[in-house]
Design a protein that fits this description.
This protein is α+β, with helices and mostly antiparallel strands. Helix content is 56%, strand content 15%.
């Protein structure tokens, strides 16, 4: 069939798909870049503000400390004893020693209460004496034994003390040895008296404490910080080299940027209103804004990479999205009418037209799915009649799937045999039988509705499954006999050859309906049918003395129960077989031995189906050998087989329990390990255990009593409550750690399960009000 050429439309279609991808990509990246710019600016401003605030705090703290020291020095310089001793020229003559002792005792030891002070001393020019708390020395003794400035001689020290008049004089931090210990001190000097006979009060301030405070504004220690007096002389600093020869940097108030040591420095300055001193912090800009630069670099890399990759992906997606439409357009026949083609000039319109056709065919598809229901029902009934369900849970799940309702306290099976049709069945005969069975179905359904379940069992047979609610078996028997008689009377005349009904005994457990079915088959093959007795009941049948009761359905049921490890059902079924074969009459010895042989064969089949390869003799094999011993009576052989069936069933039960316990522990361990993953689901458990999702769901509910979703939610809630009660983590972090994709989802789930919000739970738990 000729096809339409679409080469002219290919580029246009590809372009139409590419543009939306590209626009969305570029728009998203531009928004991200704008957000980065604002974030970078905000981080830089906040960093400068935090540094400035820290510097301001240091300045205020040091202003207070310096004011205390100046006040101490001013008080001491104004003391009368200190003032009068400046005129003493011979301190060791006359009353001089007493005055020295009295002056030393009057000095208060401030360093006991102010750790900012290393110590202080008072130096007198006339007497060359130095006095401090508990110490009296001559100046050369004091400098040689107690205090020594690094790199400074005695004469230089005396010159620094008395070479000029000092008023609130601070000297820069200097390394000293005081009382045998190294210190770095800032010296504060206050002179008193006249120029010819002056004295000086000197306070040694611990410079390391000042430096420790400055380090708070330079935690990375890759920049520098200093304090300079009003004349620009450095008082204390960190991070500067050759500081003794340097003046303070000419920096204006506020923050600015300078080049220092081939690095761009971010400088913050604060000026004291108390003494006019400058407090300056300079940090490398790349250190201060390290995170900002990282964000900038990362954003730029992501922007460029995402742009290039995104454009490539957009092109690929556009090509991939347009290719199916191009193929469809190429498959359109050239004979298609122009009117129809006009309605679908582009691929989107064409897809819309195709979707509308799918919508129109939805009802047809739904009808086809509904047509599968009878097949599912046939499979269910066939399996039910063969005893293929070993538990009620499995049976109820299959009934729900096949949309079958079998509600009632008692159930029975009736086989409807259409007379007059015998093998071999010819085509005309089968067609006639189909018509007869359709008429029978219609008549029964119009009469009974959903009360009777029909199943096609062969060319000339139908199975009727009857259910009813009655107080006891006797009442149900009366109701079902009347019901079957009514059905038979309504069916007379549909088939010219007539009908027979074989009815099994009534069962209270729907899973044992196979037994009623086997009894109905037995009746059908062994009853003495006649027009006067068209309906036979198994309860009214007389078993021939030469036969025994052990239909194939009973054997299949016994094998399934043993394999499933259902011990109670196995015991009950075996006892029923024994009772059926000895309750009504006494069978000949040969017939009883035949039954023993057949049960022995069933035991061997059970042994094979449980996994034994036959390479070694087992207890079951030994039991069969003992049961077939001709010297044993049939009753003794039956007891041996019964014990073997029970023992094998127990083995299978233990094996099943062990397997179930192992699988349950494996599932619970996997959930415990991965409950924090948001994508944990039944499909993940199915992959882990190499089973289906349906089986995992059924098995988990059976073993734990909870659905998987209920168990997972309970586990996550328990962990969330533990974290809320014992940690200070944000609720959003706890939600993510517990496997929730968003805080809103977690909050709704927590409130639904616990009745209060997560925040309220944490508050009440810590207050001790939550039980």
């Amino acid at each position: 069939m000729p096809v339409k050429s679409v080469s002219g439309e290919k580029a246009g279609l590809l372009f139409r798909f590419f543009i939306p991808y590209a626009v969305i990509l570029v728009g998203s990246l531009l928004v991200g870049w704008f957000a980065y710019g604002k974030t970078s600016e905000l981080v830089e401003n906040e960093t400068v503000k935090s540094t400035s605030a820290a510097l301001q705090q240091i300045q205020e703290a040091l202003d207070q400390r310096f004011a205390e020291i100046e006040n101490i020095a001013r008080q001491m310089s104004s003391e009368s004893k200190i003032q009068s001793f400046q005129f003493e020229k011979e301190p060791f003559a006359g009353t001089g020693p007493y005055r020295l002792w009295d002056l030393e005792k009057s000095l208060f030891n401030y360093k006991l209460f102010n750790h900012f002070i290393v110590d202080y001393y008072i130096a007198y020019k006339n007497s060359s004496m130095v006095i401090s708390p508990r110490k009296v020395y001559t100046s050369d003794q004091y400098y040689r034994l107690l205090l020594r400035y690094e790199g400074q001689s005695l004469s230089e020290w005396r010159q620094a003390l008395f070479g000029q008049y000092h008023y609130k004089t601070y000297t820069p931090g200097h390394s000293v040895v005081y009382e045998g210990k190294p210190y770095s001190v800032v010296s504060y000097m206050q002179s008193f008296g006249n120029k010819s006979s002056s004295g000086v009060v000197t306070v040694l301030i611990n410079n390391r404490q000042i430096q420790d405070m400055l380090r708070k504004v330079d935690p990375e220690q890759e920049g520098f910080a200093y304090i300079a007096d009003a004349n620009g002389n450095l008082i204390s600093s960190i991070g500067l080299k050759e500081q003794d020869f340097m003046k303070a940097l000419p920096i204006k108030s506020g923050d600015t940027h300078i080049r220092w040591d081939e690095q761009e420095m971010l400088v913050t300055q604060s000026t004291s209103e108390y003494n006019g001193w400058s407090y300056v912090s300079a940090q490398p800009k790349f250190v201060v804004l390290q995170k900002v630069y990282y964000i900038k670099q990362l954003t730029l890399i992501i922007f460029v990479t995402a742009l290039l990759l995104g454009l490539g992906v957009a092109g690929y997606l556009a090509y991939r999205s347009s290719r199916p439409f191009l193929k469809i357009l190429q498959l359109l026949p050239s004979t298609r009418s122009e009117a129809a083609h006009a309605a679908s000039r582009n691929a989107v319109d064409y897809i819309g037209h195709s979707v509308s056709e799918l919508v129109e065919s939805h009802d047809s598809l739904k009808e086809r799915l509904e047509e599968q229901i009878p097949m599912l029902r046939n499979v269910l009934v066939d399996r039910l009649l063969k005893g293929g369900f070993t538990s009620m849970q499995e049976l109820e799940a299959a009934m729900d799937h096949a949309q079958v309702q079998l509600r009632g306290s008692h159930h029975a099976v009736a086989l409807l045999h259409i007379r007059g049709y015998h093998e071999p069945f010819m085509e005309e005969m089968l067609m006639e039988l189909d018509i007869v069975k359709i008429n029978i179905r219609d008549r029964i359904q119009s009469l009974c509705g959903e009360g009777v379940l029909l199943h096609d069992f062969g060319e000339n047979q139908l199975v009727l499954v009857l259910s009813g609610t009655a107080a006891d078996k006797a009442e149900f028997t009366i109701q079902m006999r009347a019901h079957l008689q009514s059905i038979y009377e309504h069916l007379i005349g549909i088939s010219g050859t007539g009908l027979y009904m074989a009815v099994g005994e009534f069962q209270s457990n729907i899973a044992e309906l196979y037994r009623s079915y086997g009894e109905a088959k037995f009746v059908l093959h062994h009853a003495g049918w006649s027009d006067k007795s068209p309906i036979f009941y198994h309860a009214e049948m007389e078993m021939p003395a030469f036969s025994y009761y052990y239909p194939a359905d009973e054997e299949m049921r016994l094998i399934q129960l043993v394999k499933a490890g259902n011990l109670d059902e196995t015991r009950q079924l075996f006892r029923q077989i024994k009772e059926k074969n000895r309750s009504d009459r006494q069978m000949p010895m040969a017939v009883e031995k035949l039954l023993v042989q057949e049960l022995s064969g069933t035991l061997m089949k059970c042994n094979e189906q449980t996994g034994n390869d036959g390479s070694h003799r087992t207890e079951e094999t030994d039991a069969v050998i003992r049961a077939l011993n001709p010297e044993l009576s049939p009753a003794e052989a039956m007891n041996i087989l019964y014990a073997a069936f029970v023992r094998l069933c127990q083995k299978n039960e233990e094996r099943k329990k062990s397997h179930n316990a192992h699988l349950t522990n494996r599932l619970l361990s996997y959930i415990e390990k991965h409950y924090g993953e948001s994508d944990l689901s039944l499909s993940a458990l199915a992959r882990e255990t190499h089973t289906s999702e349906a089986y995992v769901s059924y098995f988990f509910k059976e073993q734990t009593g909870l659905n998987f979703s209920e168990y997972l939610e309970k586990l996550r809630m328990d962990e969330a409550k533990r974290e809320l009660a014992t940690s200070d983590k944000p609720v959003s972090d706890i939600a993510a750690a517990c496997g929730y994709l968003s805080l809103n989802t977690f909050s709704r789930a927590f409130k639904r399960v616990n009745g209060i919000s997560a925040t309220e739970y944490r508050r009440l738990h810590r207050a001790g009000d939550y039980a």
